[in-house]
Amino acid sequence: MKWIRVTTTENIPLREGRSVRIGDEEIAIFNLGDRYMAVDNSCPHRGGPLCDGIVSGDTVVCPLHGWKISLETGEVVKPDVCVKVGTYPVSVEDGVISVQYSKRDEEKAA
Questions:
Q1: What is the pTM of this model?
Q2: What stretch of H or E contains 107?
Q3: pLDDT digit string (tens) for 80-91?
C-alpha cells in the first residue's frame, strides 16, 4: 500500500466532493469539515458521480437517483440493499490530501 498525494484541502469546499483519478480508478474525496473521506466515485445503482452528490452528515446522496451511501463504510444506507462502494483511507498533512491506494486496488481498476 502506498499514499498518493491527490490535491490540496483548499480545492475541496466544505460539505462538497471532488473527483480524482488514480490510475484507471476515479475516486470521490469529500470535505466533512473535521475530516476528509474517500470512496469510489461511481454509485452502485447506475454509476452516478458521487462527487456531485449532496453531503449530509457522513453520507452522500447520489445526484441521479437518490441512493444514500455511507462515506465511512461505503455501504448503501438507502434503499435497503446489500451493496457498497470501495472506501479509501485519507490523510492530510500540511494542507495536502493523500489517499492510501493498494496494489490490489490498482489491479481491480485494470
A1: 0.88
A2: helix 103-109
A3: 999 999 999 999
Peptide bond into 63 cis (omega under 30): no
Helix or strand holding residue 108 (H, E): helix 103-109
What's the pLDDT tens digit per position in 63-74?
999 999 999 999
CB atoms within 10 A of CB 105: 19
Ordered by where they begin, the domains of the chain are: 2-109 (2.102.10.10)
Cell triple for 65 = 437517483
The CA angle 60-89-97, to the nearest 5 degrees, is 85
Q: For position 23, what pLDDT does the model report? A: 83
- Give the CB-side neighbour count of residue 94, counting CA atoms within 13 A: 1
